[in-house]
Amino acid sequence: ENSIIGNVAFFGGTSGEAYIQGVAGERFCVRNSGVHAVVEGVGDNGCEYMTGGRVVVLGDTGRNFAAGMSGGVAYVLDFKGDFSDKCNQTMVDIDPIESLEEIKEIKEMINKHIDYTGSKYARKILNNWKAYKSKFARVMPRDYKRMIDAIERYQNDGLSNDKALMSAFEENNNDLARISGN
């Protein structure tokens, strides 16, 4: 219940990994642009203004989670079923995790968490994966997801990574211009 790591941990982080056995204070991973982190709970304003990276939260969050989040992905174990009330959904969607690739990524991150911290709580989650898997929520910005989907679509059409990225950017830029009337 007590914070083991203080407020604004990994503020503006650009790369690396972090595994915290315990609860983080407020504003965990704010402006994160590349850190991959696992934590067992966070205070208010977690993942605020996040632009990249991956965060797995194995416990409760405070209020205003993901406010201003424009990139990256957070996976939150919504054990109590009240996460949607705590998440600022202005820019993000909360979805169940269905992709086998995402499930594999989450499990790998939790396994690393166990390796680095010895967390019995994380081990309990993996040992009872069937029961916990459906309680995870994916938090992803809508614009970020639209870009990822467009890049994947262009890659499937045979474009290189760079060309797919540029085509997706142009497509989304044109969509925004059309919506705004410019």
Structural overview:
This protein has 182 residues and is α/β, with parallel strands linked by helices. A 6-stranded mixed β-sheet has the order 2-4-5-6-8-7. The N and C termini lie far apart (50 Å).
Largest sheet: 6 strands, mixed
> How would you describe the shape?
globular
Radius of gyration: 17 Å
Distance between the termini: 50 Å
Order of helices and strands: EEEEEEHEHHHEHH
The amount of beta strand, in percent, is 15-25%
How many helical stretches? 6
Q: What share of the residues lie within helices?
A: 25-40%
Total strands: 8
Kindly report the average pLDDT value: 93
Output the strand order for the largest sheet.
2-4-5-6-8-7
Low-confidence stretches: none
Topology:
Layout (H helix, E strand, L loop, with lengths): L2 E3 L11 E4 L2 E2 L8 E7 L11 E7 L13 E7 L5 H4 L5 E5 L3 H18 L2 H8 L1 H5 L2 E6 H15 L4 H20 L2
Parallel strand pairs: 1-3, 2-4, 4-5, 5-6
Antiparallel strand pairs: 6-8, 7-8
